[in-house]
Amino acid sequence: MDTIDLAYVGRGFHEELVAYIADQQDFYADEGVHVALRDGCTWDEERLRRCATIGLGRALLSRLTNGIPWVALTVNTHRPLFWFLARSGMTSPAGLSGKRVAVHAPRTAPGCFARIALRRVGLDPDHDIHSIVRAPGDYGMDLRMLHDSTIDAAVVGSTMAPEAVAAVEGWQVVAWVGDLFQIHTVGVAVDPTYLSPGAPAVQAVVRAHRRALQVIHDDTDTTVRHLRTFLGRHTADEVRAQYKTFIAPYFTTDGRADLSVGDTAITAVAAELGVPVTVTAADFYRTT
Fold it and tell me: Does 83-180 match 2-79+183-284 at the fold level?
């Protein structure tokens, strides 16, 4: 049996659900590959590039800024699952002006995407908000800071169902990043310097993940059962609502990229980072 290391670089169902389903449903074994799922959240690029990686956003940023020749072989979604969660009193992203907002660092993938989203609602992320830079994680401390009014809003990821949290706390989801900016953010990518895209183990992972995507679209009950593993703080109804709102409509059915979305996104990311556009979507997303 072939073996491969597959690293996730973020936490939450956005990053991990497809790989989790592939593992739990024995799709990896069926495809003849042993997959070691690795936590690469704090790895540097040199260590990460020796594995296959789930995080396409980080891979794209490192290709644009450092020239690492990542290629994406399958994509899960082109809607990044990050939200602006705010204390009561704000009803739109414009209300973030002048507020203290917990955000990710500008040159991380979620930080870059959030900055693009802010610009698209007319806010300058460097001048119109007071940024408190936070590392991605389970966002427990961000919720605590919202509770004690240390911050007014936070960019949070899919370790929770933000709308359910807002309903319980009397807060407000003022924007979903995926509504404001589309980019393929999770899937499977490799650096051909170390892993050939055509290697049997790599292709087996791609096939397993495409089978998992079919489960997401064809078997709601199984998907929700696995999703509850990531959303333990929520009720079954809240988990199912998260699936219906953010997963079923937006995850791909076959792992293929939308190259028009990809080209637009790459241009926006390069502009936000202040670097030239050195790769096209067709070069980066080799998902056919």
Answer: yes
Every domain of the chain and the residues it spans: 2-79+183-284, 83-180
99-124 in b/e form (b: 16+ CB < 10 A) is: bbbbbbeeebbbbbbbbbbbbebebe
Q: Tokens standing for 52?
A: 């296959």
Q: Please give the CATH topology (third level) of the domain spanning 2-79+183-284.
A: D-Maltodextrin-Binding Protein; domain 2 (3.40.190)
Residue for token digits 């991380």?
108
CATH of domain 83-180: 3.40.190.10
Among 128, 111, 114, 113, which residue's Cα sits nearest to residue 84? 114
Report how far Cα 185 is from the mean position of its chain's Cα atoms. Answer: 5
- Check if the beta carbon of residue 48 is closer than 8 Å to that of residue 7: yes
Condensed to tens digits (0 to 9), the pLDDT of residues 166-201 reads 999 999 999 999 999 999 999 999 999 999 999 999
Quick one: pLDDT at residue 288? 80
pTM (two decimals): 0.96
**Cα–Cα distance for residue pair 123/55, rounded to 1 Å:** 27
